[in-house]
Amino acid sequence: MTDPTLFLAFGKVLDPAAAMAREGNRIAAAGQPLGHQVALVSRDVPAFRINTYGWLAASPTLLAALPDRRGLRLLCRDRIEAILPSFAGVQRRWIGGYLDTLDRLFELDDDSDPERLDRPSDRFFAALLPLPAVTIRPVHVDGAAIVPTGQGGPVAADLAFWDGTRLTAVYFGADNTATPGVRAARAALVDKVAPLVTLRRVTTPADADQLAADMAAVARTQPYPCFGPYRADAFQTPLPIGA
Amino acid sequence: MVFDEKEALMTHADSMKMRLLSQHQLNGFGGVGEGMAMQIAPDGRRIMWLAHEGPPKNFTGVDVSDLRNPKVICQTDLPHQRMRSNSLDVTGNIMVVCYQVAVPGDKPAGIELFDISNPESPRSISFFDMSGRHSRGVHCCWFVDGEFVHCAAGAPDFEPTHLRDDQIYRIIDVRDPLNPVEAGRWWMPGTRKGDNVPPPERVRPMPLDNIRGPDAFRLHNANVYPERPDRAYLGYIDGGAFILDISDMSDMKVVGSWNPHPPYPGFTHTVMPLFNRDLLVVTDECVQDNAEDWPKLSWVVDARRESNLVPISTFPLPSVETFGHKGGRFGSHNVHENRPGPSMRSETIIYGCFFNAGVRVYDISDPYRPETIAYYVPPGPEGSRVPTAQMNDIYVDENGIIYSVDRWAGGLYILEADI
Questions:
Q1: How far apart are CA B172 and CA B276, in angstroms?
Q2: Are B302 and A156 an interchain contact pair (Cβ–Cβ within 8 Å)?
Q3: Which residues contact B351 (CB under 8 A, 6 or more apart)?
Q4: Which residues of B touch A173 (CB under 8 A)?
Q5: Which pLDDT does position B6 carry in this prediction?
Q6: Block means of pLDDT (10 residues each) for chain B, length 419 residues?
Q7: pTM for this entry
Q8: What is the pLDDT of residues A17-69, one digit of tens each?
Q9: Are B235 and B270 in contact (CB under 8 A)?
Q10: What are the phi and psi torsion angles at A218 (to 5°)?
Q11: Do B269 and B293 touch, CB atoms closer than 8 A?
Q12: Which candidate in B4, B51, B60, B271 could, as Cys together with B241 as Cys, close a disulfide (CB 3.0–4.6 Å)?
């Protein structure tokens, strides 16, 4: 992975350092940037989408038992909500709204063409994956070893999205929700790994709606096919339209 | 040896990741109650308003624009010695001050509104009388929206079943500050004569020769936030914590409650919601010296389902062996309440004052395991009735500057934490 690389621990992780030592090293060794609770991002890592391999725990048997695409979407929704820690009400409410936005965005897509293997509504699965309750730390990856660099962190964010070029770290609430030390740590991280991380603050319901709309719009830009709930590694990079 | 210990208490601060920027003993009247509020004055100065613990002083305004050189710019007197203000709150340029009398029936007992546009010369706007035969007036108030004062108050027409249960939840509409009117009231069932349920069983019965203090089912704090204007969070002393639906202020309803007393020794003080995390921080108040009512705890409560509140942890405190007999009270009291305005509003870092255990800061990122991340225990101030500082209230501004006060003599302490 290229430097700077960011190690992310997300969801129910209480001890990011332990998660890095255990699961982080595992995904680094596997060359797989996204795991159940951790991730590694750098400029050579494609965007984390709902159908990016690594985070979704669902057996082929379960997937086969789902009746339709809507069932698949509901399964993903359930699994995304299951990432959330217990006391993350604001993230839970926002993610619910984001997934509702995605549903609304794609529910009118016409899936009726029986000749198509992919479905227009599958763009739901190409939407950016929200990573709630995330801790961010600049690291250097050397084979299976992850070594923190002196570039700041760990810094916590309420939510993050990786779009393949930058990490958007989301904070709910105004500046006065963080201590001066935390504010300084966030600023230092942004400065040291620029332009890999941007901070986005959500202070009003309108901000929350706009964030959901902006993130959902990324899925709209995805060309077909979107590969359903699983996107193989070979297809991480979007295919050009008409290919 | 005893002398040495006392000497140490009086001269040395004990701290971790926190330092004193300045202290002001308020011109010799350094006993402060639990009213602290910050005003950004029209000319940009930052004024910390303080309600005194008892007479002769009413309230003091301190210009804290220069953190290392605070200045008293206003100090007022109470009308007589049989009363106290104890609590105040500020929104914009309006300040509400509480008046509580020592003996039911005495006056003035109520709230007074002041225009503090000119902080040097507060101008009385109106007084809302809450005196009565069974009323001691108002102990505590919350005023953050410029519209309603939520207070622990007696009422002329409220006769409690027990002498100490006189202060109920009253909401005063001050949208017309010249003419405040009551918008609603609620009390714990059984505490009013004539209720159709029996009075609550006393937690730690105390003789009635002193009606201040413990053994009470009355309101202490009522907190209402802009995030949920339809909810009031009440610390109802021995009655525990209540969440009320106040969407109809004339007909408030309980939607959740939790009470650790008994077996714990009573005095729920503050119920502070953390809206983004569906948690509550609930504090008890230590009200007896020398750890006679130990343990007085600060609780973290799971409020994901507000009708089923579940305690999940308490804040760690230093040992009772070390602090319990240093003098004065030891244990929980006020926390910084995340009020709107020029105020810190963290949902992971909680700032509290713990009497002789000083000002303490907790990280509750993992709410099952709160951690102490900073503290400052001042030396006992000169002129105090006890050998320790009794940190009584706390306010943290939006820049993370911590303001705390001593109950008896030390006045205002301005602190900075390296967190």
A1: 28
A2: no
A3: B335, B336, B344, B359, B360, B361, B362, B394, B396, B402
A4: 276, 345, 347
A5: 57
A6: 56 93 98 98 98 98 98 98 98 98 97 98 98 98 98 98 97 98 98 97 92 92 97 98 98 98 97 98 97 97 98 97 96 98 97 98 97 98 96 98 98 98
A7: 0.94
A8: 999 999 999 999 999 999 999 999 999 999 999 989 899 888 878 888 888 87
A9: yes
A10: -60, -40
A11: no
A12: B271
How close, in Å, is residue A176 to chain B by CA atoms? Answer: 5
Pairing of strands A197-202, A167-172: parallel
Least CB–CB distance from A181: residue in B304, B367, B418: B418
User: Both tokens of residue A227?
Assistant: 């590969």
- Judged by CB atoms closer than 8 Å, whether chains meet at A87 and B344 is answered as no
Side-chain half-sphere exposure of A98, counting CA atoms within 13 A: 30
3 state DSSP class of A24: helix
Which residues in A162-179 are b (16+ Cβ under 10 Å) and which e? Answer: bebebbbbbbbbeebbbb
Nearest CA in chain B to A184: B419
Contacts of A88 in chain B (CB under 8 A): 276-277
By CB neighbour count within 10 A (0-12 exposed, 13-18 middle, 19+ buried), where does B309 fall? buried
Contacts B345 to A, Cβ<8 Å: 173-174, 176-177
Which of B302, B344, B417 lies nearest to residue A176, judging by beta carbons? B344
